[in-house]
Specification:
The chain is an alpha/beta fold and 572 residues long. It folds into 4 domains: 3-83, Arginyl tRNA synthetase N-terminal domain (Gyrase A, domain 2), CATH 3.30.1360; 111-119 and 127-157 and 255-364, HUPs (Rossmann fold); 162-232, no CATH class; 455-563, Orthogonal Bundle (Isoleucyl-tRNA Synthetase, Domain 1). 55% of the residues lie in helices and 9% in strands. Helix 5 links the parallel strand 5 (111-115) and strand 6. The model has no long low-confidence stretch (mean pLDDT 93). The structure holds arginine (ARG). Arginine (ARG) binds next to loops. It is an enzyme of class 6 (ligase).
Length: 572
């Protein structure tokens, strides 16, 4: 059903006959015809023949009569393909009756672990966690839709030396008061107060040290206090996830502490395999491929000189668990780019240890920072980290105000719902519509604009489609034949048929901006169609065909946005 692929499959045998071996016909959208193949150009060099002659021979051999209205050789040796209206209509009609919109379920479903969000207990989630949560959730949604077994792993930072001071501060504050403060989301205040005491007060420092030892030793009273801290933070994070409308739930918390018992066996195995080397009193792996500026191999510290295990050891244990016990073959780590080196070293070490062997593979799904309007790291007015809830609440408030202004007929409840969908949608789309490796500037005006490459623009296109059906009091007939004839109808039909290819590409690259760009192109093609081709004022088969085009466009927009975690209200 994917048009590029259909054309490519038809051209391939003709190219193979001319070349005497398999050739990728490289079919792409084109300005000059619907599609273009430029494979003859590269082939010409290999066969030492004129590219135009090759293209002409392919044209004569290819069986395209039922699909194409015209196949022409152009320029230095391109093949220009114009799809026949009839064929285009049949393909879109088939899409309209397919609940999966042309996107097949994976032939070989895999177990995929998506490690994302991963905030730290008793610390405010920062905008980096926002990006991880938004991108990771899109990955989980997409891969699940394709039929993979997705395991969401929220690698909560819930272990380590800071817990000594956090627990002591909890004791000083009084459990009830501290719990109150934490459940309100005053995480940073709590952390900062603990830190200040730790820095200034020798006795407090000593108590904190003893607490860490007690925690690691499993002292029941200490463990109870630690659980309290973790539970309060988890509840708070869940309220953020709820506001952000992501699929993470309580069952997905896989804190660092949950790998505690796997640390010693993991490190023992590294030792058995002869991969450990002592360096400055610490046990380290020196994975291949990681060297410092001085050209010396870089150590991944798995056991510190004080005998404790840290972040790298936990990631090694978690990875070994994910492939070995969960049987995952694809491991995604949705974490900011500053941790790139860490993951390279973890993956290389795991490879050496045999915990990450084909078909299993790991990918660091890295991303850049969110910048403020001044082009620098986003900071609060006081200069600290921006509180995520504040940011999300502001998005929803702004979008609700805009919705009220634009559409005074919306009732109170509906305006609130639209405001949430648009505000949160705008935040997610701003994040997902740019190349994730790059930083981006948080710009309220731009991301909430109704025109441009924004969530509201796409949501608006969807609501317009729904309003056509509301106004007409009709539904599209699923069996209606789509017969595109006008250029704007043809352009829309061709965009619709491109959905499966984009989904397939993004499932591999996890570069969601390709899906976003596609949806924006689709919505633009829809607006052009809607301007030029009257729908409700047409009649008979034309009316039915156009209604079917509207319906299937609405479904692709809905599904595409749903994969990005963005809602599509019926009215804006
Ligand atoms: N908690 C870490 C942080 O805030 C992110 C953890 C990412 N996941 C992992 N498996 N290391 O930076």
């Amino acid at each position: 059903m994917d048009l590029e692929k259909v054309l490519s499959d038809r051209l391939a045998p003709a190219f193979a006959a001319v070349a005497g071996g398999p050739v990728d016909p490289v079919v792409r959208r084109s300005q000059h015809a619907d599609f273009q193949s430029d494979a003859a150009l590269a082939l010409a060099r290999r066969l030492d023949r004129s590219p135009r002659a090759i293209a002409a021979e392919v044209r004569d051999r290819a069986e395209l009569a039922d699909l194409c209205a015209a196949v022409e050789v152009s320029g230095p040796g391109f093949l220009n393909l114009t799809v026949a209206d009839r064929a285009l209509g049949d393909l879109v009609s088939a899409l309209a009756v397919d609940p999966r919109l042309g996107v097949p379920v994976a032939d070989e479903p895999e177990t995929v672990v998506v490690d994302y969000s991963a905030p730290n207990v008793a610390k405010e989630m920062h905008v980096g966690h926002l990006r991880s949560t938004v991108i990771g959730d899109a990955a989980a949604r997409l891969l699940e839709w394709l039929g993979h077994r997705v395991r969401r792993a929220n690698h909560l930072g819930d272990w380590g030396t800071p817990f000594g001071m956090l627990i002591e501060h909890l004791v000083d504050r009084g459990e009830a008061e501290a719990a109150q403060e934490l459940s309100m989301g005053d995480l940073d205040a709590f952390y900062t107060a603990a830190r200040a005491k730790f820095d200034d007060d020798e006795a407090f420092r000593e108590r904190s040290r003893l607490r860490v030892v007690a925690l690691q030793g499993g002292d029941p009273a200490t463990v109870r206090l630690w659980r309290l801290l973790v539970a309060q933070s988890e509840s708070y994070f869940l309220t953020v996830y709820d506001l952000l409308d992501v699929t993470l739930s309580r069952a997905d918390f896989r804190g660092e502490s949950s790998y505690h018992d796997l640390l010693a066996p993991t490190v023992a195995e590294l030792d058995r395999l002869g991969l450990l080397r002592r360096s400055d009193g610490a046990d380290c792996v020196f994975p291949p491929g990681s060297v410092g500026r001085d050209g010396e191999p870089l150590p991944l510290i798995v056991r510190k000189s004080d005998g404790g295990y840290g972040y790298p050891a936990t990631d090694l244990a978690a990875l070994r668990h994910r492939t070995g016990t969960l049987g995952a073959t694809r491991l995604l780590y949705v974490v900011g780019l500053p941790q790139r080196r860490h993951f390279e070293m973890v993956f290389a070490s795991a490879g050496q240890a045999g915990w990450l062997a084909p078909p299993a593979r790991a990918e660091h799904v890295g991303f850049g920072s969110i910048l403020g309007p001044d082009g620098r790291m986003l900071r609060s007015r006081a200069g600290g980290a921006v509180k995520l809830v504040g940011l999300l609440t502001e998005a929803v408030q702004r979008a609700t105000a805009l919705a009220r202004e634009r559409n005074p007929e919306l009732g109170e409840a509906e305006a609130a719902e639209v405001g949430r969908a648009v505000g949160i949608g705008a935040i997610k789309y701003a994040d997902l519509s740019g190349d994730r490796h790059k930083d981006y500037v948080l710009d309220w005006e731009r991301m909430l604009a109704l025109d441009g490459n924004t969530a509201p623009y796409l949501q608006y296109a969807y609501s317009r489609i729904r309003s056509i059906f509301r106004r007409a009091g009709v539904a599209a007939r699923p069996d209606a034949a789509v017969v595109p004839t006008e250029p704007a109808e043809r352009a829309l039909a061709i965009e619709l048929l491109g959905f499966p290819a984009v989904v397939d590409e993004v499932a591999g690259s996890l570069e969601f901006h390709h899906l976003a760009t596609y949806l924006h192109r689709l919505a633009s093609a829809f607006s052009a169609f809607y301007e030029r081709c009257p729908v409700l004022r047409s009649e008979g088969p034309v009316l039915r065909s156009r209604l079917a085009l509207c319906e299937v466009t609405g479904r692709v927009l809905h599904q595409g946005l749903h994969l990005l975690g963005i809602r599509t209200p019926e009215r804006l």
